[in-house]
Each structure stands twice: as C-alpha cells, then as structure tokens.
C-alpha cells in the first residue's frame, strides 16, 4: 500500500504544471470539503467550457469528484490535489457524461488513480465521446487538447453506495437517468454538502438534449428531501436548496409553456420562437439553450400525443 501511494505521489509530482501563473486551488466550502471551480480551471487555459471539481477528505483517503475538460486540466486537478491535502486519493468519480467533467480523467489515470462512473455513464462515454473529443479539438485546437483521450471509466455499479475515507463515510447517490444516463451525486452528511454534478446548475439554463425529463424532476425532488446545507453544482457557485427549487421551477415552467403552445396548435418553429420565460433570461446560456430545450420538449410532447392517438381505446 505504501509503495502504491509513493508511486502515485511521484507521478503526480511529475505532472505539476511549471508555468509561472496563479495556480488553480481547491477552496474549502466546509470542513474537509473543497471546490476547484470551473472558473479557476478555465483561467489556466482552454477549454473555457469546463465544470466544477469537488474534493472530500477523510483521515485516511480522499475522493475527487469530476476531472476537468482536458488532459491539461486533469494535471491541474492533480497539482491542486497535492497542495490541498496530504491524503492519497481513494479514487475519482465522474458524475455524468458531459465532456467538461470527464476529459481530465486520463491524466488522473496516468498518475495511477482509479476513475469510476455509473455503468450507464461509462457506457455512454465509450459510445459517443470520441465525437465530443473531435469537436473539442476543432473548437479549442490541438495544443489545448494535447494528450486528451476518451477515458475508459471503471463501473462503480448501479444503485446508491458508500465510501469510507477514514472517519468520513460519504454517500454516492444514483439519480438514474436525470441530466444524462447514469447521473450521480455525492453527499457528505458530516458537513451537509452535496456535490450534485450535472443534476444541479446554478444560474445556468440546463441542457435537455441527453436528459430524461421526468427523471430529472425526480432527482431534484430527492435532493430537496435531503438534509443539505450547501450544494456544489456542476456549474456555478456553491448554493443552497433554493437554487435546486429554481432549477425545478424552470423545468416545470418550460414544460407548461410548451404544452400550452402545442395545445394551441403552434408549430415547432412557432413554439421555439414564442416560448419565452423572461424570469430566467439572465441565466447563462438562455438565448441558445432555452430555444433548444423548447425544441426537445415540443418533440417529446408531440411523440406522446402520437403514441396516445395510436393506442386502442384512447
């Protein structure tokens, strides 16, 4: 065990960036609970579209939650991890299958760290993330994405499970198909901190492309029933359960508006143009992502209508 820890520390040391710039740091949000913000990672260089990284530290080990958007950002995570704690990481967990949270995984794996995900998440990454990587290279350039590869993620198994970090037992919550298939969160009851991954976004319009709408609503409802003091979202600052309620309200208001327009006979282009929710217009991504969400929900409502029409007796 000591030899394995020594190898990890040596590998991590070799990966520490040497550029003379202000390093990205894990900042405490509660005793033993930390956040390396997306903004701090992006400040180190492209990709600009990246997600928050969490860290929970016990007496014997640490857990990393999400990994950054590139190999270079994964190296930044490793360097920040060494500065934040002397405890060896037990493993890293990818919370959901979006590029800004998983493309740093290869750097962690090369340093000897296991990276796990829900089996549905791992399967989706294997099926489609080469396309995501090719797109990122085209967007940010080969230099920014150098050494980045699609990680092979270990399956953590389905269902809720616990991890003992030594005097700190954390809970991995299986939200099922919510924001993406195999969405998970990590709840630290000791501090009341929930790392919600892609299931919670703060001040940002959610993306419904890969979501199960009802599953997402159910996941937010489950979170609201937990004894949570603070939520670390996949994007945005640390928030309270009020932000969870706001995200749920957006989804429900979106659904109600799309169904109203569909029932009135509006076409898909008309619904996309008319389904405005001004209460959320200041959220990041509203002009583009909200229109996309209207598109996805309209098609879902239309399919539901067609299926109902084709059911005998209805």
UniProtKB/TrEMBL annotation:
Domain of life: Bacteria
Boundaries of every Metallo-beta-lactamase domain copy: 50-235
Transmembrane domains' residue ranges: none
UniProt name for this protein: MBL fold metallo-hydrolase
Family membership: Belongs to the metallo-beta-lactamase superfamily. Class-B beta-lactamase family.
Keyword terms: Signal
Keyword Signal applies: yes
Range of residues in the leader sequence: 1-23
């Amino acid at each position: 065990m000591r030899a394995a820890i020594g190898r990890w520390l040596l590998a991590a040391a070799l990966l520490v960036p040497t550029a003379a710039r202000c390093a990205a740091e894990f900042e405490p949000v509660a005793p033993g609970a930390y956040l390396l913000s997306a903004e701090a990672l992006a400040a180190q260089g492209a990709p600009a579209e990246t997600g928050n990284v969490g860290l929970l530290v016990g007496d014997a080990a640490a857990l990393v939650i999400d990994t950054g958007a590139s190999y270079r950002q994964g190296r930044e995570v490793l360097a920040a991890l060494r500065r934040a704690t002397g405890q060896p990481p037990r493993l890293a967990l990818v919370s959901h299958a979006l590029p800004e949270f998983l493309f740093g995984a290869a750097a962690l794996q090369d340093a000897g760290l296991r990276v796990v995900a829900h089996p549905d998440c791992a399967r989706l990454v294997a099926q489609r993330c080469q396309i995501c990587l090719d797109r990122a290279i085209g967007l940010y350039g080969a230099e920014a994405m150098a050494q980045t590869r699609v990680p092979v993620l270990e399956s953590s198994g389905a269902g809720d499970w616990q991890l003992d970090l030594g005097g700190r037992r954390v809970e991995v919550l299986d939200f099922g198909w919510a924001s993406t298939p195999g969405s998970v969160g990590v709840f630290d009851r000791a501090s009341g901190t929930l790392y919600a991954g892609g299931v919670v976004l703060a001040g940002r319009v959610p993306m419904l492309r890969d979501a199960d709408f009802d599953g997402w609503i159910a996941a937010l409802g489950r979170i609201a029933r937990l004894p949570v003091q603070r939520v670390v979202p996949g994007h945005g600052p640390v928030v309270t359960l009020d932000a969870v309620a706001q995200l749920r309200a957006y989804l429900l208001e979106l659904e109600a508006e799309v169904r109203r327009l569909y029932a009135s006979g509006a076409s898909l282009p008309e619904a996309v143009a008319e389904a405005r929710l001004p209460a959320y217009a200041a959220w990041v991504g509203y002009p583009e992502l909200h229109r996309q969400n209207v598109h996805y929900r309209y098609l879902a409502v239309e399919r539901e209508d067609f299926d109902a029409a084709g059911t005998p007796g209805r």
